[in-house]
Amino acid sequence: MNPDFFDQFIKNAPVGYANQILITDNNDVPVDFEFLEANHLFGDFLGVKSELIKNRKASEIFAGNPKNPLNNLEIYIKPAQEGERREYEMYSDLLNKWYKVIIFSSKKGSFSTILSDITKEKEQLAEYENFFKVNLNLLCIADTYGNFIKVNKEWERVLGYKQEELEHRKFLDFIHPDDLQPTLEKMAQLFNQEQVTGFINRYRSKDGSYKFVEWRSQPYGTTIYAAAVDITEKMLQEQELHSQTALLAGILDSIPDLVFYKNNESVYMGCNPQFAKYAGKEKEEIIGKTDFDIFPEEIAGNFIETDQQVVMTGQTSHTERI
After folding, report:
1. pLDDT 10s digits, 253-277
2. How far apart are the C-alpha atoms of 36 and 29, rounded to whole Å?
3. Eight-state DSSP code of residue 172
4. Which of 156, 180, 219, 240 has the most CB atoms within 10 Å of its CB?
5. How far apart are CA 170 and CA 145, in angstroms?
């Protein structure tokens, strides 16, 4: 490569660059390092013009700014002596910017340092972290192999586990045994890069109880981005309503008379077997219909509602007898 071209590339590169060499004492112990060259962006980070850096010791360069994060001999020793590559994130108070620092060596005793501005990435990450913290949904990043990677604070409120108790754990370990197979089937969809929405399963809380969680999950390669809602209260209400409905249906089924119940719009909400037999239909065929859907007009007009009432599905209904 043309040396002039290399020099021009280094000088005008969009990153800070410096080439340095370790200085050791008589016992070969590193005591300082010297800058052989540096471009202007590297000089900006040090707060020194690049032309004033060349062939100067670090102890001289950093004398006026000892708190500069690059003023740390320890981080250069292994790269220079053992060829070990090191990466760091450092903040410059002088420039009010974040930098990614890469230290590497191509020759024992010397090393190079590259600085790249990552301020925008750090700001975006901070915004993402704030969103993750304050969101009222259960947010998580997982993988298609069944591991939580990251969860937000809401998981602690819903399940009682600290975030660190869930992160990097198998989420399958927390799922109700009866929901394990359906969950594995949805994981297969995600593995095939299919979005999953409206899926409900149960997660074990720290106190041993289970919470119903409804998911919306989007795969991206082997990574899953998901948001969920705790719907336990809704599911328990539905279960209670179902139990009450089943109980009432059992009571009505035991009554020998013809019994049915409607909503306020005279639509059948249910009936007992005796009424279904009288109507010549299955019970399922009567629900959701009106008298005029079930009976001839002359018969349908003879149904008169009484004042007896039964509460079903949150509505007040009438119970009638023939």
Report:
1. 888 888 888 888 889 988 888 899 9
2. 20
3. G
4. 219
5. 8
